[in-house]
Specification:
The chain is mostly helical. The chain is 41% helix and 5% strand.
C-alpha cells in the first residue's frame, strides 16, 4: 500500500453586525466565544462544511479577526482501510469526489483573498501543529454529531489546550437549528411523523447566510514557513491516500450509464440545483417523479453535495421558496423537497440523541435475535448476483457509479435483511464504502430503521411487485443488466419473514408483521456460516428519500 504509514502528520514535500441575522442563539453563543478568544489570528478546521455559502463556522471564525487560516486534513484512517465484513472505509470513487470538493473549496477561498492549508495525517497531529505555526489562539469547527467525529474533536481539543489554544464548536448543516426544531433536539420522537409535525408546528427555519464578500487574509507568518506555504498548494493523490494505481484509474472514469457524472464541490452543487429546479423546471412535479431510478431528472441528486457540506440545506430551502415565488407554483411537489430535508434533520437529531446505539447490532431496541445469512449471500448481494433483477441492477449501479435511487435503496436493504437474513450492519458498511453521499447519521439511521431496530413499524418490500410498479417496462433493469453474461442464479431466501411490517413509508400492497425476524445478535456474531467480528460499530450511508438518492 502507498498509504502514509503511522499516525503522525506529514506535509507536502517538494513535490458582525449586532443583529447576527440568520443565526440561532446556539450559533450566536458559539460565534461570540470564537470572537472573544485570545488573539487576532484564528484558524478554521473544515470537515463536512466544504462551502462558503451559509457556512456558520466560517463566519464565526472570520468575523473580527485580523487573519484566518482555513485547514483541511485527510486522515488516512478514513480511506482504504478495512471496516466490517469485507468493506472498506471509502472507495476510491468516493475519495475522488471528496478531493474535487476540497479543490473547489480552496479555489473559492482564494477568490476571497484567503486560502486552504491541506495536509495528510490525523487531525490531532495536524490541526494543533498548523494552528501553533501561525500563533492562533482558537480553532473553529463545525460540531460533529456521531462519536467518531466527537472523538476527533476531543483529541484535537486536548492537544490545543496543552499549547494554550482552544477548540470552538459551531452548529452547522441542518435545516432546523437545535433549539428551533420544536422539540428537545437530543430526545426526539423515533417516529418521523411526530418529529416533522413538531418541527413544522413549533420550529422555524432561519434564512441562509450569503457568501462573504471578502475574508480575512492568511496570517503573515505563512510566507515565512516552508511547510505551511507548501500546504497551501498541496492536494494528495488517490495513491497518497492509500489506493492502488488501478483503483485510482478506475475511479477517475465516469460510467456512461450513470444518472450523472458527479463532480465534487460547491460550484457543481449550485449549478445542479439551478439546472434541476429552474432550467429543467423539475421541482413542480417532484412528488410524481421522485420514485424513478433511471436518468438525471427524477430527483434533485443533491445528496452527495449535502453529505460533504458543499451546499447548505437552508440554501436549498431558500431556493425552493424563490422558485415558488418566481414561478407562482406552490404545490405538494415544492413542499416535498423540504419534507425530504426534514427527513435528513430527523436522522441527524436521532443520531445525536441515540448515540452509538444506531451502530450496534441490536440497534436502539437492543434486539438479540441471531442472523442466519452468511458470507455467500452477502457477497452475491454486493456483486449484484442474487438472481433478483431489481436488486441486481441497483447493486451494479452502486458499484459502477457510487449512486443509487431512494427506491432502489429501500428495496436492496429490505432484501438483504428480510429475504437473505444478513446482518444489517454489513449492508450499511457496504453503502459507506461506495455511496458518494455517505453521511453517518442518514446511513446508519436508515439502515437501523430498515432492520426494525428503532421500535417502529417495519417495511418489507416485495421486489417483484416493486419492479412491476416502478419499472414496468424493465427500462431500468435492462439498462444495467442487458449484455451482462455473469451467472445470476436465484438465492435461497429465508423461510420466514415473508410478511414484514407495514411501514410508515411502505410501498403499495406491502404486507408486514414482526414474525421471522433475522436481525443482529447482541454480541455481533453471525449465525452459522456468518461472519464473526468483535467490532462494536462501523458506519456508512443510506439516506431514505431524504435526499440520499433524492
Amino acid at each position: 500500500s502507498k498509504r502514509a504509514e503511522g499516525s503522525s502528520s506529514f506535509f507536502p514535500q517538494t513535490s458582525p453586525s449586532n443583529e447576527e441575522e440568520g443565526f440561532s442563539s446556539s450559533s450566536i453563543s458559539a460565534m461570540a466565544a470564537v470572537r472573544a478568544s485570545a488573539g487576532r489570528t484564528r484558524a478554521l478546521w473544515l470537515r463536512c462544511d466544504l462551502r462558503l455559502d451559509d457556512n456558520l463556522a466560517l463566519r464565526a471564525a472570520s468575523e473580527g479577526c485580523d487573519s484566518l487560516l482555513p485547514m483541511y486534513v485527510f486522515n488516512p484512517e478514513a480511506f482504504n482501510v478495512p471496516t466490517l465484513a469485507g468493506a472498506k472505509k471509502s472507495s476510491a470513487r468516493r475519495a475522488r469526489f471528496l478531493l474535487e470538493s476540497v479543490a473547489c473549496l480552496r479555489k473559492n477561498l482564494e477568490s476571497k483573498g484567503s486560502g486552504l492549508a491541506v495536509a495528510v495525517g490525523t487531525p490531532q497531529d495536524v490541526i494543533p501543529k498548523l494552528s501553533a505555526a501561525v500563533g492562533s489562539g482558537s480553532v473553529a469547527v463545525t460540531q460533529g454529531v456521531c462519536s467518531e467525529e466527537q472523538r476527533e474533536e476531543g483529541l484535537v481539543a486536548k492537544r490545543l489546550k496543552a499549547s494554550g489554544a482552544e477548540l470552538k464548536k459551531v452548529w452547522n448543516n441542518t435545516l432546523y437549528m437545535p433549539e428551533e426544531c420544536g422539540q428537545n433536539p437530543q430526545s426526539i420522537p423515533l417516529m418521523f411523523t411526530s418529529f416533522k409535525n413538531k418541527a413544522e408546528g413549533r420550529g422555524q427555519i432561519r434564512p441562509p447566510v450569503d457568501v462573504p464578500k471578502t475574508l480575512p487574509p492568511l496570517p503573515g507568518k505563512v510566507k515565512d514557513l516552508k511547510e505551511l506555504k507548501e500546504a497551501l498548494t498541496f492536494l494528495p493523490t488517490l495513491e497518497e491516500l492509500g489506493y492502488e494505481a488501478d483503483e485510482a484509474a478506475e475511479a477517475a472514469k465516469d460510467d456512461p450509464r450513470g444518472v450523472l457524472p458527479f463532480q465534487g464541490g460547491e460550484d457543481a452543487a449550485l449549478a445542479r440545483l439551478q439546472k434541476w429546479m429552474f432550467d429543467d423546471d423539475k421541482l413542480k412535479e417532484y412528488f410524481e417523479i421522485r420514485n424513478g431510478m433511471k436518468g438525471d431528472g427524477y430527483s434533485s441528486k443533491q445528496s452527495p453535495w449535502l453529505a460533504l457540506g458543499c451546499i447548505s440545506p437552508r440554501r436549498i430551502w431558500k431556493e425552493a421558496q424563490r422558485y415558488e415565488k418566481e414561478r407562482r407554483i406552490q404545490n405538494k411537489s415544492t413542499y416535498w423537497l423540504i419534507f425530504e430535508l426534514t427527513w435528513r434533520d430527523f436522522f441527524v437529531y436521532m443520531a445525536w440523541g441515540q448515540g452509538d446505539k444506531i451502530f450496534m447490532p441490536g440497534g436502539v431496541t437492543g434486539d438479540k435475535t441471531p442472523w442466519r445469512g452468511g458470507k455467500d449471500k452477502l457477497q452475491r448481494w454486493k456483486d449484484g448476483e442474487t438472481g433478483d433483477k431489481l436488486i441486481d441492477a441497483n447493486m451494479r449501479e452502486l458499484l459502477a457509479t457510487g449512486f443509487m435511487s431512494n427506491r432502489g435503496r429501500q428495496n436492496v436493504a429490505s432484501f438483504l435483511i428480510f429475504d437473505l437474513g444478513v446482518d444489517w450492519r454489513y449492508g450499511a458498511a457496504h453503502f459507506e464504502e461506495h455511496l458518494l453521499d455517505y453521511d453517518p447519521c442518514s446511513n446508519w439511521g436508515n439502515w437501523v430503521a430498515a432492520a426494525g431496530l428503532t421500535g417502529q413499524r417495519v417495511n418489507k418490500f416485495n421486489t417483484r411487485k416493486q419492479l412491476s410498479d416502478y419499472d414496468p417496462k424493465h427500462e431500468y433493469v435492462n439498462h444495467w443488466l442487458s449484455g451482462d453474461t455473469r451467472p445470476s442464479m436465484p438465492l435461497a431466501k429465508e423461510a420466514s419473514g415473508e410478511k414484514g411490517g407495514k411501514g410508515e413509508k411502505g410501498g403499495k400492497g406491502e404486507k408486514g408483521g414482526k414474525s421471522g425476524r433475522r436481525w443482529g445478535s447482541g454480541g455481533g456474531k453471525g449465525g452459522k456460516g456468518g461472519y464473526n467480528d468483535a467490532q462494536k460499530r462501523q458506519r456508512s450511508v443510506y439516506l431514505d428519500d431524504e435526499l440520499q438518492g433524492a
